[in-house]
Amino acid sequence: MVQTPQQRRANERYAKNEAAKRGKPVTKSKPKQTSKAPVSTTWVVLLAFVVCGGLLLELLRVVPEIWSYVTSMLSRITG
Asked: What does the alpha-carbon distance between residue 52 and residue 27 come to, in Å, rounded to a whole number?
């Protein structure tokens, strides 16, 4: 059954009075939990070294080829 506005106001007053009788609840603060990373720092550093090291070696291999291509194009344009 649906409450009438008068019943709703009466229920709100009653709930307010009961809450005042009980007082405020004691709030307990939970200690902060330090979250542990799922992967250790060592593995992250190792993975970064492998990925960045591979990228660096690949760049060292490709840059001379690109440079020779650019110089050959410039010599064709100017020559």
From this structure: 50
Mean pLDDT throughout 47-54? 91
Q: CB–CB of 3/11 below 8 Å?
A: yes
What is the rounded distance in angstroms from the CA atom of residue 47 to the CA atom of residue 55?
A: 12
d(CA 62, CA 32): 50
Whole-number pLDDT of residue 24: 66
Judge whether residue 13 has pLDDT over 90: yes
Burial 18-38 (b: 16+ CB within 10 A, else e): eeeeeeeeeeeeeeeeeeeee
